[in-house]
Amino acid sequence: MKFSFNGYTNDAFYDEMFTTEGQIRTGYEHLKKKCEQLTSDELTNRQLSAERALLSMGITFNVYSEGEGSERIMPLDIIPRIVPSSEWNQLERGLKQRIRALNMFIHDVYNEQHILNDGVVPRDLIESSKCFLPACMGLKPPKGVWCHITGTDLIRGDDGAFMVLEDNLRCPSGVSYMLENRELSKQIFPEVMARTGVRPVSDYPNRLLDMLRFLADRPNPTVAVLTPGIYNSAYFEHSYLAQQMGVELVDARDLVVSDGYVKMRTTNGFQIVDVIYRRIDDTFLDPQAFNLDSLIGIPGIFEVYKKGRVALANAPGTGVADDKVIYAYVPRIIKYYLQEEAIIPNVQTFICREEEDRQYVLENIEQLVVKEANEAGGYGMLIGPKATKKEHAAFRKKIKDNPRNYIAQPTISLSRVPCMVDGHAEGRHVDLRPYILYGDDIHVIPGGLTRVALRKGSLVVNSSQGGGGKDTWVLY
User: Fold this and answer.
1) pLDDT digit string (tens) for 373-410?
2) In this structure, is residue 205 part of a structural domain?
3) Predicted TM-score of the model (pTM)
4) E-strand stretches of 203-272
5) What are φ and ψ of residue 235, in 5° steps?
6) Cis peptide before 374, with omega less than 30 degrees from 0?
7) What domain of life is recorded for the organism (predicted)?
8) CA 51 to chain centre
9) Structural domain count, the chain
10) For residue 316, is it within any domain?
11) Closest C-alpha to 174, from 455, 448, 467
12) How far is it, in rounded angstroms, from Cα 37 to Cα 40?
């Protein structure tokens, strides 16, 4: 039986592929035609083959929330998400604007603090942030860049307009899935991609390496990827990126501070490392500077960094702009530093540390999404409409006990894209995480990882919470 989109409904949600009248949106024509030339069994087999390929390539992540670690693939739904050129160009401008302003903000916070002195961002908000590192005061990172690699989460609301859901400026993950999903798309829909005109993402590792080399003072610098180790949930990505860039993958056992430099153990003795792409959180990076109990850091590396003898990406302290409460101030941050309005708006956000907002959240928690300031991966979050009265009461208490640690937002009906479900198409909610590199210039990779809530009706797209991925095609 031929596969068909007949009977597919968007259920009043904004659909990426079809209008409310059922008309096909720009860019999806060749894909729809190809899918309907195949049988449901053929498309299902392509879906299963893609998942087997991910497993055989070892493209997995570890889940520890269930009591013991288990390895899983991030399921790939083979029907891609397509973004027209005009929409992407606007997103690209908005993301560049946002990263430029956030980089200025981080530098200001750790140096002159103009924005705090002027009261645009409350001083106590910064000083109470778990990600604010007093040890970074006065720090000036190589080439003046703090947030070298960013993954900014975007969503569409009911009206189809993009909004920023959150910023990820510490150790954003998922780019390996973006790259491998694209390789699988090339195998599944090669002629469709050619006819549709899809911008490439395969140059990401080269762009990443060029950006890292830009940070070094010496010609032909030695670059390494620093991983917490094989038990980290994103270890595959660390090893994958190191392999794609042709650089060493190292952990704490491989590096040592000696003679004022960071050196790597090799079969030919110690070798100076110039640039480190770290996939370790700030506070675990150096037990002498941050966390005495860290067993995965390199003692003394922060002092070497402050002297300019090694470059770190992202810079320590960057997480201060990753705080979900700081997120609420980003439009003001953009206005303050760039004298511009934000091109991509935030989702409306209630700041629980502010009395009026807090009272509104406590009274309307059943309709809101509540988030902890520094949690990620879908943890520390309450989706009010889907939570129980007991859960509502528990979060009310948490907010009252520690209002600084919470924000709340309206429950947004995320846009949907058709997915393969039991041989037919059903709509599932998605977000989009584009990746931005900041070196000598800011470059937004034309695509990103579309994360999809594979559970019917779910709004949680995180892989650790049952989400999957889609390839994202940005058109020329």
Assistant:
1) 876 655 678 999 989 999 999 999 999 999 999 999 99
2) no
3) 0.92
4) 223-226, 248-250, 255-258, 261-266, 269-272
5) -60, -40
6) no
7) Bacteria
8) 22
9) 1
10) no
11) 448
12) 10
